[in-house]
Each structure stands twice: as structure tokens, then as C-alpha cells.
């Protein structure tokens, strides 16, 4: 490996570790707020400009009905 490849790999590793540390700290703050009975918002935990991805609501399973012509 070249020195540049090693440096790039190290930089990527450092960035991943920093991101994981930030997520861990956010989880700790959230847990502390929940333990204290405080209301927290996603923006406070994840940072400004972060939004929860919309999820399609799952519908309850309905029985299948067959139609008949008489």
C-alpha cells in the first residue's frame, strides 16, 4: 500500500470512530433525559437539520374475502 492509501484508510477509520462516539454520546444524553422524565426531541438528540425518515404505516391484516356471482 502507498502512504496515501494508508493515510486515506486511517482518515476513514478516524471518521467512523468519531461518528460512533457521537452516536454513543447522543444515546447517553437521551437515556439521561428519559431517566429524568424530560421530553426530548429528535433534533436535540440527532442534531439540527436531521429529520426522521417517514415510514409507511402498516395496515392491520384484513381477512381475504372472495366474491361470488350468483
Task: Kindly summarize this structure in a few lines.
With 70 residues, the protein is an all-alpha fold. Helix content is 54%, strand content 0%.
Give the helices and strands, then pairings.
Elements: H1 3-35, H2 42-46
Task: State the main characteristics.
flat; 2 helices; mainly alpha; 70 residues; single chain
Task: Please characterize this protein's 3D structure.
The chain is mostly helical. 54% of the residues lie in helices and 0% in strands. The protein has helices at 3-35, 42-46. The longest helix is centred in the N-terminal third of the chain and has 33 residues, at 3-35. The chain starts with a helix and ends in a 24-residue tail after the last helix.
Radius of gyration, in Å, reads 23 Å
Integer average pLDDT: 77
What would you call the shape? Answer: flat
The unreliable regions are none
Note the total helix count: 2
Order of helices and strands: HH
Amino acid at each position: 500500500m502507498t502512504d496515501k492509501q494508508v493515510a486515506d484508510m486511517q482518515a476513514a477509520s478516524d471518521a467512523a470512530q468519531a461518528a460512533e462516539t457521537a452516536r454513543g454520546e447522543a444515546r447517553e444524553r437521551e437515556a439521561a433525559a428519559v431517566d429524568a422524565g424530560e421530553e426530548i426531541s429528535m433534533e436535540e438528540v440527532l442534531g439540527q437539520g436531521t429529520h426522521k425518515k417517514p415510514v409507511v404505516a402498516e395496515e392491520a391484516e384484513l381477512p381475504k374475502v372472495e366474491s361470488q356471482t350468483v
